[in-house]
Write a structure and sequence with these properties.
41% helix; four-stranded antiparallel sheet; alpha+beta; 22 helices
Amino acid sequence: MRIFVKRENWEDGIWMRLPATEEEAEQVRRSLEEQHPSIMLPFIGAVDSKFPELENRLVGEIVFPTKNLDRLNQMAERLGSLNGEEEMLFRAAFRLEAPYTAEQILETLGHLDCYRLHPEIGSFEELGRYLSQEETSQLSEGLEVYVDYAGIGRLRQEDRGYLTEGGYVEKRKDLMEQTEAGEGQSREKESETEKRQETEKMEKKQGVFSVTLIRESFTDRYVRFALPLPEQELAEKKRQAGITQELPERVEISASIDGLLEHLPPGSTLEELNQAAKVIEEMETCSGIEWKLTFAALEAELPGTMKECCCIIQNHQTYELLPFPFLVPESYAHYHLEQEGFSLPEGLKDHFDYRRYGQEKIRETGAAETFYGVVVNREHPICLDHGEGQELKLYSPLTLTTFAGYPLFPALLHGEKVPTFQTVIRKEIAKGMREYGAGGLAETLYNRLLSGKISSIVPDVEEHQGQLWGVARISTRGELTERELAGLKEEWKEIVAHGWGDLFASRTLNAGNIRFHAGFWDTERGENLSLMTEEEFGREVGGFEIRM
């Protein structure tokens, strides 16, 4: 399966095969930016598949946000795995259910077992005889020859299924049977799949956060519970797990609301998550929460504490998403004039400075552009000034590994050739950074609040006292709190250990006749792994004469 990825107002595009790896998708995204830069998100312009009916549904779908691409990959993998009979089931289910998005198509693919194929029914006449068996049995002798079974088949085929080239695909009768007694009665029969799905939904509703605390002991190792909890019960759960610090390392947390954890302060304690869970549960019970609007408000305001987050969640209805996705001064000017009821005389419309007017009104109202669209607060301007930005560095020991002369075991490199290695590594870093925008690796941050305060992260390498160090050069929007800095350190470890750093470490570099690999956070072979700020690095290593 292939999709044609393109941008708005551009006739050309790039074909991308699905499922696509992160590297393949990133290559397409970069190629699009190089060929046709635009603020508009790339979307599907055409589909090449053995199921041509998909094109009308998928054209216009956004491609590159991670969830969208994962969904498209899952759909392509599932479609590619269908056997002949399943393909016919899918074509019929597609016709009957008419899914209009990749998400809905995945749902259809997930319950093909709700359909049954009748290969013995190959024509409308045979279908008509099958669908009218009960009525036919009541006919007087000799009247059956006057029945237009083909007409019945054409008219009623989609009552329960769809006639394909391989036979009639019918929705299973046991899943269609319902009592006809009237309102309030439920199904007489319910499939095990539906029961399981309903059970899972109920489980998800039990608590806002699911927490697993891991004990040192291998007997009764896990302590699991859901938040919110009364404070005494939460304290008892932590005591059972032997945990005393605020946010233990041995903890796994998931949220019942997609995207919630990413929009809370990094490093939130269990007590703080419990506080948020209580607010959310109370809001959901009383009036409900519009999460898209709430996430936009949190991303715009960038609250630094859980108390501020809870306040935004409680007052999310004071925010408003505007009817355009990007904050363009001219667009905002027209919107604001319309909202205020201002009309311009015809003779002035072509001479009105919409751009300047829009810029001034954006500053006045505090309109902010977020991933979810442009948001404003109707009661007060959103504060976009988070103070003077910072320039930070995070240092970690660089691990240089070679397999030259050691066919079975890697060897670590040290010594006089370090300056040569530094030059090679820097060139490779610069080459790899072409794949990212102006913010570098900042766009890969998981936490949306932290991401909003980091304008760029660019990896580098520096030499100090004959040793190479991996460096993250970081620019911020405003000063980071201690907790935000701690959260940034944890995210940087993930980026260099499993994300960008893992890909970089897989590249073979050449310095003279030596082929080697460079790891920014090599947990397998790295020596004395640590992550330090510039100040901590100066105290730890002693002195600060770094040769560039």
